[in-house]
Amino acid sequence: MQTPNFDTFLQRFTALQDTEKLAAHNEARASTPALKWVPNPGPQADAYLCEADELFYGGQAGGGKSDLLLGAAINEHDRSLVLRRVHKDVGSLIERTAEILGSRQGYNGQEHVWRLPGKLIEFGGCPHESDKERYKGRPHSLKGFDEVSDFTESQYTFIIGWNRSATVGQRCRVIATGNPPTRPEGLWVLKRWGPWLDPKHPRPAKPGELRWYTTTDLGDEIEVDGRGPHTIDGKEIFARSRTFIPAKVTDNPDLVASGYQSMLDTLPAELRSAYRDGNFQAELKDDDFQLIPTRWIRAAMERWTPEGFRALAMTAMACDPAGGGADAAEIAWRHGVWYAPLVTVRGPETADGSAMAGRIIAHRRDSCPVIIDSGGGYGGAITQRLKDNSIDATAFNGANTSTARTMDKAQLAFFNKRAEAYWRFREALNPDQEGGSAVALPPDDELKADLAAVHWSLERNGIKIEPKADIKERIGRSPGKGDAVVMCLSEGNAAVRRNYGAMSGTPKVKVGYANVKSRRR
């Protein structure tokens, strides 16, 4: 890559005022006539020159994120794929490409492909979860995602699997751009770029700092030291580097002069925090039919402490099985209303009822009851193995009829047991109940997304929760962590009542949740 005199402009940029950035940008253009597009000095240039295999350039709106994708594709890559979640949204990217190139020469509107000398840029969308299959086996040296938090995690990880090129010397990389997520479906980006975006991450990283990651045979991502080779599961493999660089509207001289900042100032509060301020810890905007408010979930996670289980017996456990499929099995347990970090199990082990039962038994304490989701047909073998070991195990089928009612004055019925279980969890998190909520959930962005993604409706025969398949289509995976945590509460309470409710001297079980105290083991 040739960038004549560009380092000089980077060094000078830190001393410039905002009003001088436009002049610096024009000067850079004049000094690099061979390039169709030149990045603005500062973060956009840092992102353009970044050596990471996988870069997230994000934050405030107007930071030149889309331009970075297009500029990299035009200047640096032989074959590029530039995606938006909704296919029609690539129209603005295509128009911007024409502006950069000065014409639409080489563009095929039917194929949404731009052919330049020695280069090809493909534009596309991925509106449905299954649409990721259209990009299977199609190599591109640049995989670009515009507004990456609109995609599901599985779409992203599947498509970047073909980030490669047969051209000798061609660099391959992934560039993801976007603002902080404003919906639960996008929370996965906070986990993937946790060292840069999570203020509580145990090993925080600086903007632009490279970290190295690879994946085990079971699909678990691990951080390693350098590219490698590393011996993982008995095989020598190489890791890929990852980083995050924040984007700010003030770094974009074209928009500074246009007054774009004042437009961002008028956005609603939750969007202003995400788009204007680039705050990745901003509150999400709840859907009108979201069952559990995001702020309730966040409050429960803020109450959590690592030592919260002390002096409380293990109250209940729950397992959302996977049956050997692509989804993970999740195991949850709680001490009173304190939930432990969930245990995730992947791979062939999840199809083995005895192996999964063994996993549960290894964590079980205080003879607590165990709830197994049997709705998908995967939990039967696990339940039987637990019973064979004289363990109190209950199969939970969310499709079964519920005779319960809501605890408020409306006394509404439930469509089925699944709706009842989720509503009971909502009631337990409600901060307006007498004494407030005491539920403490482990900080986990995937769990937060699972719980916040659930929608509800009021039908003639009661409160109904949307089908699990609909949630999976929207977030790109099974909401297993949310299901396990929810079952562990209401169904765990029911099991506690069955076992101890009639015994004299046993602790009282609060309607919303069990707070069973006993001697520590």
How far the N terminus sits from the C terminus, by CA atoms, comes to 64 Å
- Kindly report the name of the CATH homologous superfamily of the largest domain: P-loop containing nucleotide triphosphate hydrolases
Mean pLDDT over all positions: 85
Q: Biggest sheet, strands in spatial order?
A: 3-4-5-2-6-7-1-12-8-9
Number of domains: 2
Instruction: Give the helix/strand class.
Output: alpha/beta
**Helix tally?**
18
What proportion strand?
A: 15-25%
CATH class designation of the largest domain: Alpha Beta
CATH architecture of the largest domain: 3-Layer(aba) Sandwich
3D shape: elongated
- SS elements, strand count: 20
Q: What are the segments in which pLDDT stays under 50 over at least 5 consecutive residues?
A: 1-10, 502-521
Would you write up a description of this structure?
There is one protein chain. The protein is of the alpha/beta class. The protein has 2 domains: 6-212 and 240-276, 3-Layer(aba) Sandwich (Rossmann fold); 294-500, Nucleotidyltransferase, domain 5, CATH 3.30.420. It is 32% helix and 18% strand. The strands form 4 sheets. The chain has a 10-stranded mixed beta sheet with strand order 3-4-5-2-6-7-1-12-8-9. Strands 13, 14, 15, 16, 17 and 18 form a 6-stranded mixed beta sheet that branches. The longest helix is centred in the last third of the chain and has 21 residues, at 480-500.
